[in-house]
Design a protein that fits this description.
The protein has about 350 residues and is α+β, with helices and mostly antiparallel strands. Helices cover about 15% and strands about 25% of the residues. It has six helices and 17 strands. Strands 7, 10, 11, 12, 13, 16 and 17 form a seven-stranded antiparallel β-sheet that branches. A three-stranded antiparallel β-sheet has the order 2-3-4, with no helix packed on it. The two termini are about 50 Å apart.
């Protein structure tokens, strides 16, 4: 282990890291979970954030760049209650059941030109005895929370002028920033309009029982669709979850999850779980294409194979009530048409 730590440290130039092996990790998640005000969404998108006590209340604010205004004006309450600082959480227990140890052992010979005999023997012994690492003390006898500094100073830095040479890079990265939400705090009404032919018919919800089990196209459901004369209006109204109550397990959905775009486009998945209270879907992602075969994604192999799943905001749902073609497992023509229309309506270039 000492040699490994040394190699990691030497891989960097300046500053050289201080590499240590963590023997135990506190289970902060279970300690904080009962006290969190709600599900955090989009909080990984902004570049800047702060947590600050204002008038006796600790609030979260965010912004895209230094020098910009902190959002939202009133801040977001992160905690509905406070944990007892003297209540020491347990250590996280390692979960090694998903670790394919035989496969790791079989990989060791591949590195024979980079490992000496001693290092090779160490890795074999380490993997053979790795399950011993599951044995952690049930309760820590040391808890550093009481010694953590109670306050952090903040210094506002004026925004600097960017060189023209890197402005195109910034423009490409500086997409519209979604509102960060905590539970129902920070949710904003959105209304996106686009014009279509008055004769077109839009069906909201799922197809009739049995769905499209053939290769004939039918119109899939579209998120919050209202037809008024020659205007199709798709609206997401704060607190309105009625439109999503038709979503069920195993239903195919099309999504727009910003941090996966444009690498994943179109974004197709099947629903594993619907949680209307938390306004969340657990989805099984598909490898998807506009014209070729779509298939579910898995990681690992054999008995260790697992579906690639993710919890997403239910409002990321763009389209539902469709099936893939029976023969080729591709998106049907009408599904492609509707989904591209929906993506373009929110400003995506597809």
């Amino acid at each position: 282990m000492e040699r490994l730590k040394a190699v990691v440290a030497e891989a960097y130039t300046k500053p050289m890291p201080n590499v240590v092996e963590l023997q135990h990790v506190f289970d902060f998640k279970s300690w904080l979970q009962p006290h969190i005000a709600g599900v955090f969404r989009h909080h990984t998108v902004p570049h800047n954030f702060r947590i600050k006590r204002i008038d006796g209340e600790v609030l979260l604010h965010y912004r895209q760049y230094t020098g910009e205004k902190w959002l939202p004006d009133g801040g977001l309450v992160c905690m509905k209650s406070l944990p007892d600082l003297t209540d020491i959480p347990p250590f996280v227990k390692p979960i090694l059941d998903r670790l394919d140890i035989p496969a790791l052992k079989s990989d060791i010979p591949k590195y024979r030109f980079r490992m000496d005999i001693e290092s090779k023997s160490w890795w074999i012994d380490y993997l053979e005895n790795i399950k011993e690492r599951k044995k952690v003390p049930h309760k820590p006898n040391h808890w550093p929370m009481m010694s953590i500094a109670a306050a952090v100073t903040e210094e506002e830095v004026p925004i600097s002028v960017l060189p023209e040479s890197i402005q195109p890079v910034v423009d490409r990265l500086n997409k519209e920033m979604p509102a960060v939400t905590v539970g129902k705090q920070g949710q904003q009404a959105r209304c996106i309009q686009s014009t279509i032919q008055a004769a077109e018919t839009v069906v909201t919800g799922t197809n009739e029982e049995g769905g499209n089990d053939g290769d004939n196209d039918s119109v899939p459901g579209m998120s919050a669709v209202v037809v008024e004369e020659d205007t199709l209006q798709m609206a997401e109204i704060e607190g309105d979850m009625e439109q999503f109550k038709v979503l069920k397990e195993d239903m195919m959905v099309a999504l727009y999850v910003e941090h996966h775009f444009p690498e994943m486009c179109p974004q197709i998945a099947s629903i594993k779980k619907v949680d209307l209270d938390e306004e969340t879907l657990i989805v099984h992602w598909y490898h998807a294409s506009w014209s070729s075969k779509c298939y579910p994604l898995y990681k690992g192999g054999g008995r260790h194979r697992e579906a690639v799943t993710e919890a997403v905001d239910i409002r990321c749902t763009v389209l539902w009530g469709f099936l893939l073609t029976n023969k080729n497992k591709t998106l049907k023509g009408v599904t492609v048409q509707r989904l591209k229309h929906a993506y373009r309506s929110i400003g995506l270039d597809v």
